[in-house]
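Researcher: Structure for this, please.
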Amino acid sequence: MTAFAANSLLCRVALKQTSIDAASFTFIRLISGAIALWFIVNMRKEERRPTGSWLSALALFGYAAAFSFAYLSLSAGTGALLLFGAVQGTMIIWGLLRGERLGVGQCAGLASALGGLVVLVFPGLSAPPVVGSILMLGAGVAWGIYSLRGKTAGDPATATAGNFLRAVPLAALLSIAFLPWARLDGAGIGYAILSGALASGVGYAIWYTALPGLRAASAASVQLSVPILAAAGGMLFLGESLTLRFLFASVAVLGGIALVVRENRRDIRPVR
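Model: Predicted structure, token format:
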């Protein structure tokens, strides 16, 4: 989750404070992640080739592209609420369709986590732009699908590497389509490389490692901590101030996540 928060900060800084365009940022991010993961896979003692799938790669590309373009018009708080609300909805609906059932305590935990997130980002925000909102909701659905597919993807590093490698040509086509609006600078390229190689490539491999041990509801709820971590990073690196609202939201979100993750047979019952 720390890597995801770092990704949010790097993307926010690059698209808001440098001249790089969203399509170029997406392409550099994905190709940097692919290169980093290729080195990780090839440094292993056992010989394994990248695996993954085109469907997962399409979900990864859809998330990365929609995420970048959405942040051109959305504020960070509005984008986080839309993104992780869509992620949670996608993964929980899938879990329910697969037979997972939430107990009373877990429902309370989800309500607490989402409520804390709303408290953090909603007050004072105007209605978000329609196009940016649709893009961010699409990014959340795509990331939810990518996370769900990661539960059965096999070896995390090789699966993530294969997905990134397949997503690169898709990002290249996007960059070609937006070539007339392409803008690059050194700082923007640097942020995109850090976002791709570290926060995305390595971070997603770690996420794929954790996914098999999490139910869909737990995996969705844990990701609600990312806006809290991103806000904390903003305070440390972007000079944002600490507020009582942030403290209250942190307790509500992280406490709610802890309640949901405490899964047991009494809380989640299979359909008979």
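Researcher: Any notable elements?
Model: The chain is about 75% helix and 0% strand. Residues 42 and 232 are 35 Å apart (CA to CA).
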